[in-house]
């Protein structure tokens, strides 16, 4: 693989930025990788582990001369960071981001992008419940999707180059409208996370009564919930605050279905329950047939320990 960008600046040095640095190095995609994080502690760790070629103490130094700048901070911080980097962006550079919500990021970041600089928002559907500069690894994006959500009229070459970078990092790349992205992710990731948070909260209340039986006897389903519910609180607070409409829409539908199942249980309507579970089982089969998961027992847990659902 050959160099795609001469200098890539990573702003925010956590799981996603770290994994990008490792993946870009693995394939030799960047001439130089610079990095900046707001806290001195994070910068010190990044230097200690050699995360980038250069860790700078100011955002201006990181961005200077970069032909790609990647915003890797929580969604709620994207606008402020974009404002900070704007005066230092090189003409012709591309700015992208990795935020889990797209319309809000476009609204926050778009107005700060100077003329002559391209903005191509993106979202890698890959993650773990770990965060910080030590948590990244080169394989995170292998065979995972990256969704790019450029606004109509965005420079085609800038999009093609970013696509090539992500493909070089091992990912499959697709383009999508930002609003559609937010609705899809509300269904596949954001609402499921909220349900996991709720379930773990409920179990925590119960644990006080049953003296840790919930943990002792937790089967795979609940263990998966606890792993998801261990995800970064700042990141997930921002996801729900910025993907409000789509999440509330899906949560509304979820609640209606839950009430219907609750009523079926109360009234002993086995036909309703059986028909519902038959439909959901068919959905699972469809996911396996589409190659999006394995049919190994226990979701292939042994082989795929580091992965979590896309965020
Ligand atoms: P992370 O490991 O927690 O790292 C976040 C980085 O952002 C840190 O370097 C932190 O700096 C910086 N940061 C936090 N708040 C900030 C603020 N207010 N202003 C400036 N910088 C700030 O996060 P991550 O998991 O890599 O997530 C980064 C982005 O990727 C988020 O937008 C998230 O939605 C998206 N994403 C995450 C996942 C996932 O599973 N984790 C998956 C796909 C996309 P300090 O260390 O100096 O505090």
Automatic annotation (TrEMBL):
Give the pathway annotation. Amino-acid biosynthesis; L-tyrosine biosynthesis; (4-hydroxyphenyl)pyruvate from prephenate (NAD(+) route): step 1/1
Q: Name one Pfam family in it.
A: PDH_C
Which molecular function GO terms apply here?
Answer: NAD+ binding; prephenate dehydrogenase (NAD+) activity; prephenate dehydrogenase (NADP+) activity
Q: Which GO terms describe its biological process?
A: tyrosine biosynthetic process
Which keywords accompany this UniProt record? Amino-acid biosynthesis, Aromatic amino acid biosynthesis, NAD, Oxidoreductase, Tyrosine biosynthesis
* Origin: domain of life: Bacteria
The keyword NAD is annotated on this UniProt entry? yes
Recorded catalytic reaction(s): these are: prephenate + NAD(+) = 3-(4-hydroxyphenyl)pyruvate + CO2 + NADH
Listed InterPro entries: 6-PGluconate_DH-like_C_sf (IPR008927), NAD(P)-bd_dom_sf (IPR036291), PDH_C (IPR046825), PDH_N (IPR046826), Preph/Arog_dehydrog (IPR050812), Prephen_DH (IPR003099)
Stored Gene3D superfamilies = 6-phosphogluconate dehydrogenase C-terminal like domain, NAD(P)-binding Rossmann-like Domain
Q: Which PROSITE patterns match?
A: PDH_ADH (PS51176)
Q: What class of enzyme is it?
A: oxidoreductase
What EC number(s) has UniProt assigned to this enzyme? Answer: 1.3.1.12
- Where does the record place the Prephenate/arogenate dehydrogenase domain? 6-295
The record's family statement is: Belongs to the prephenate/arogenate dehydrogenase family.
PANTHER family, sorted: PREPHENATE DEHYDROGENASE, PREPHENATE DEHYDROGENASE [NADP(+)]
Q: What is this protein called?
A: prephenate dehydrogenase
**Which species does the entry assign this protein to?**
Roseicyclus persicicus
Its organism's taxonomic lineage begins at: Bacteria, Pseudomonadati, Pseudomonadota, Alphaproteobacteria, Rhodobacterales
